[in-house]
Amino acid sequence: MLRAWSSADVRAAEAPLLAAGEPLMDRAAFALHVEVVRLLRAHRRERRVHGARVVVLAGGGANGGDALHAGALLARRGAAVTAVLAGERAHAGGLAAARAAGVRVLGDVAVGDAVVGDAVGPDDEGDEPGPLVCDALAGADLVLDGLVGIGSDGSGLRGLARALVAAVPTGTGGGHRPVVVAVDVPSGSGVDDGRVAGDVLRADVTVTFGAPKPGLLLPPASGLAGQVVPVDIGLTLPAGGVAVGRLEGADVAALWPVPGATSQKYARGVLGVVCGTTRYPGAGVLATSAAVLAGVGMVRFVDERDERDERDERDERDERDEREDPAAPPRPAGPLATAVLAARPEVVVAGAVGDGRVQAWAAGSGVDPADPARRRDVAAVVAAARDGVPAVLDAGALDLVTEGLGAHVVLTPHAGELARWLADRGERVGGVPVDRDAVEAEPWRWARRAHDLSGATVLLKGATTLVVGAGGSTWSQADGPAWLATAGSGDVLAGVVGALLAGRAEDVVADPALAARLAAAAALVHGRAAHHATPGGPVSALAVAHALPAVVADLLAQDGAPAVRDCPA
Ligand SMILES: NC(=O)C1=CN([C@@H]2O[C@H](COP(=O)(O)OP(=O)(O)OC[C@H]3O[C@@H](n4cnc5c(N)ncnc54)[C@H](OP(=O)(O)O)[C@@H]3O)[C@@H](O)[C@H]2O)[C@H](O)CC1
Ligand SMILES: [K+]
Predict the structure, then answer these.
(1) CATH classification code of 2-244
(2) Four-way CATH pick for 250-558: 3.90.226.10, 3.50.7.10, 3.40.1190.20, 3.90.650.10
(3) Per-residue pLDDT of the chain in tens (569 residues, 90 and over written 9)
(4) Domains of the chain: which residue ranges?
(5) Distance 40 CA to ligand 1 centre (A)
(6) Which residue's alpha carbon is at the smallest distance from atom 30 of ligand 1?
(7) Which of 5, 99, 227, 323 lies deepest, with the highest CB count within 10 Å?
(8) Residue 519 contacts by C-beta under 8 Å, 6 or more apart in sequence?
(9) Ligand 1: distance of its center to the CA of 472 in Å?
(10) Does the annotation list 66 as a binding residue?
(11) Which atom of ligand 1 is nearest to the CA of 161?
């Protein structure tokens, strides 16, 4: 599991060690240079560090200090290192080490009484990189982004730092682009909230010290961090202080409900499904397929009824009451259930939400809010959820969600749906109702807000899926390819979430915080199933569902879980 702590927690953990004189910066810089060596060997044709051209962008704080010290170590290994000083001051120790190691220093920065380096730019402000800097960047094999770390004021880079970021070649049109390594965090990104204000240099790798910071896992900033490499510099972080987590395969294997030798289908969990309509049967097929293939004990699919069916059922019931004969005759499957059964013959069809027991519900995928009969079934599921039955509520169920649900209920909106839900509840930003752009700019903020308002666990779908559950616990999963943004993908995810809620229903009722971890686990498996279905290529939602058994089997085998066991606590 990857865990991110807030910058305040990291600073608090650093403080006593710094006071005791522990060489934290040396440790950070050494690990940083080791990662750079690895990358240079991997990316350079010559496969070595000697002769590699490295540019260090160094701000005036300790982040710049880390970068300068690493630059010094690289210079001592034969790299041609140029440091560009971007702040009004420079980290004295880092600068001294860099100069002593033969690093070429560019910048007008006063250190003590001395002015070092060459003028950066031709303008009076010094806010434009000059030709020496531009040449160095144009020819760089690798750029170290040490402009600012957790000391960022979060308002976006300013001055020369901003201009330097803009001057790094982007490789557009097939041109040269250096490998970019962010020091601790991509400079200027929202360290604690994942916001991106202004330009941030997109990193291939972020080497982060002590612990990952939340912004490395939270979109949109997480999309600029590349591969996150955490480095242990000896900090002890508070056990309960994790701000954001990311599940890995072993965590999911430990959560997955696996039948024991004596398990039977009812005990393993029955999922009730109210997804799809006769007009749009696909969501019903996809959600039930996903639930079955994710390994739920049984799926009870609630067939669609129209007004006429409901009238006939009422009349039948009245006649039975008159005859004092309570048993309802089995009713033939309608066109929706027929489509579902054609795809998944193991599904049991129910005539209504109350027919037969279930441990959890999945409802709303592919349900048109304008369809009154299907909406009544969805509303019945929402009522059951309100009474404590774990449920995943998707798409056409979301507008029926009001406040006061518990975290045992998982809502699965995408950004547009979440924006609409929030705007309908009067949420505004900058004086206007929350819209999709606002949610995409601050997905964590709005997912947390939806959790606060509804009480439910909120899974916000996206390239990075965020899950906010009981107590604000947050999970960030980025496991799927971009191809997964395809029609029906959300229906499959709802089925997987539902399967997990049904399989672990008792545990979820006892500890609703578990729902967020299960939803995050579902997102991981869903993403991996897309990779598995078509590595590197387009994928259909049904193919994702079909890949689920193999992905689950891989997880359980590779991550050391026993082949047969009962549900873990
Ligand atoms: N302390 C240690 O031994 C260790 C620290 N580590 C690294 O330290 C940074 C945090 O360092 P800190 O000095 O607290 O702050 P930063 O370097 O991140 O930032 C301060 C400088 O950044 C400038 N700044 C701030 N905001 C902006 C902005 N929007 N645009 C441009 N520049 C900005 C600020 O300039 P001022 O003009 O405001 O002074 C400072 O120059 C941490 O991230 C680690 O990398 C290691 O973990 C090892 C141990
Ligand atoms: K940085």
Answers:
(1) 3.40.50.10260
(2) 3.40.1190.20
(3) 999 999 999 999 999 999 999 999 999 999 999 999 999 999 999 999 999 999 999 999 999 999 999 999 999 999 999 999 998 889 999 999 999 999 999 987 766 656 666 667 655 555 788 899 999 999 999 999 999 999 998 889 999 999 999 999 999 888 899 999 999 999 999 999 999 999 999 999 999 999 999 999 999 999 999 999 999 999 999 998 999 999 999 999 999 999 887 777 777 899 999 999 998 899 999 999 999 999 999 999 999 987 666 666 667 767 777 777 666 656 788 999 999 999 999 999 999 999 999 999 999 999 988 888 899 999 999 999 999 999 999 999 999 998 889 999 999 999 999 999 999 999 999 999 999 999 999 999 999 999 999 999 999 999 999 999 999 999 999 999 999 999 999 999 999 999 999 999 999 999 999 999 999 999 999 999 999 999 999 999 999 999 999 999 999 998 555 444 443 33
(4) 2-244, 250-558
(5) 26
(6) 157
(7) 5
(8) 392, 410, 412, 457, 459, 467, 469, 475, 497, 500
(9) 28
(10) yes
(11) 31
Does residue 530 contact residue 302 with C-beta atoms inside 8 Å?
Answer: no
> Looking at this protein, which amino acid is placed at residue 545?
A
The residue whose C-alpha atom lies closest to atom 4 belonging to ligand 1 is 25
- Report the run of H or E that residue 106 belongs to, with start and end: strand 104-106
Q: Which atom of ligand 1 is nearest to the CA of 158?
A: 30
| ipTM confidence score | 0.98
Q: pTM of the prediction? A: 0.92
Nearest to 485 by CA among 527, 443, 517, 522: 527
Candidate from 152, 162, 192, 208 with most ligand 1 atoms within 8 A of CB, to mutate = 152
Asked if residue 276 lies in contact with residue 367, where contact means CB atoms within 8 angstroms, the answer is: yes
Distance CA 462, CA 293 (A): 23
